[in-house]
Amino acid sequence: MSTQERLVRSTQELLWERGYVGTSPKAILERAGVGQGSMYHHFAGKSDLALAAIRRTAETMKESADACLSGPGTAYERVAAYLLRERRVLRGCPIGRMTQDRDVVQSPELRQPLDEMFGWLRGRIAEVLAEGQRRGELAAALDPAATAATVAAVVQGGYVLARAADDTAPFDAAVRGALALLASQVTPAAG
Amino acid sequence: MSTQERLVRSTQELLWERGYVGTSPKAILERAGVGQGSMYHHFAGKSDLALAAIRRTAETMKESADACLSGPGTAYERVAAYLLRERRVLRGCPIGRMTQDRDVVQSPELRQPLDEMFGWLRGRIAEVLAEGQRRGELAAALDPAATAATVAAVVQGGYVLARAADDTAPFDAAVRGALALLASQVTPAAG
DNA sequence: GTCTATAAATGGATAGAC
DNA sequence: GTCTATCCATTTATAGAC
């Protein structure tokens, strides 16, 4: 693996674990196993390296979410697949985590990948729900965009509740509650 | 206002804005307008002061949430009052924010107020929903505990989505979607 | 109780040898 | 390209004067 690649991956891990403020260039270098000079040769500095790492993480998350949402089954089943997919809940969301970092949200460049990723996610879930309505699987009264935001929020908020409790149970409960509510919108004919 | 009080309030503000890692004793002192010695006279150090600040913030949040949830109206109306209450959405939740801070969740003492606060919140919402069921306002099939976790998660996740977008719209959409789903559980007789 | 002075460690980055 | 050495500010805390 190239030095650049090792630096990016170390940064991805550290940003996830400690956030932007909590991640020092020194820690990145140590984890990557490279010297100080290498980092400043390949990247302009901490924020430049963070940008590369955040973009990479956002892209990966997008792909893994899309695998659930574009899979087979009804709209309800695809949303359920997304909500129930395996997660290391107590680690939290690597992208959602960045929204709590002042330096990240205040930098248009660093915030952009977060905005893009969550915007895409809400849009994709809304598409799945709208498709379910067209197929007659879901109640026509459902607002696809609002419901999509709710689904995305349940996941992000579930992480918060789980980390506060140091227990995955609140995450699972939040997902279960959301799915039960959504199930009540599934039309009898399609159920 | 006493020196102690000024220190606690400055810490509350800074923890909200910058998180635990991002908050230095120096910044606290400057905002409080006191010297270095005062802080170490009244508090053992940064974490001790943070503990006082987090406890205070959690207590305040509990009171303000309870004001909505214990108000007048049907169960749906009380949950709606909580979800729709005025918030400075882009600032995020001062308690939820702490769950993204490694040093906080790894310290049993610092995490305890978060756990207590969110545990209480989920329990209180569940009580309101269960009461609604007993009164015949809400469908009996609803799982109060799971739905309560969903409601709490929607708020916390809504903050995340809003901060990523630098726009309150995703928060409002998530709340609207959750309320629409919950409204479908309101029994016709009580609607 | 409150202040300033000081200290040891870390943060983020630059210089320059190889 | 990669490394070590160096730099200055900040972090967290202690010491001790007032």
UniProtKB/TrEMBL annotation, chains A, B:
The keyword Ion transport does not apply. The keyword Transcription regulation applies. Keywords: DNA-binding, Transcription, Transcription regulation. Residues 1-61 form the HTH tetR-type domain. Pfam families: TetR_C_13, TetR_N. Residues 24-43 bind DNA. PROSITE patterns: HTH_TETR_2. One of its GO terms (molecular function) is DNA binding. PANTHER family: HTH-TYPE TRANSCRIPTIONAL REGULATOR LMRA, TRANSCRIPTIONAL REGULATORY PROTEIN. This is TetR/AcrR family transcriptional regulator. It comes from Streptomyces piniterrae.
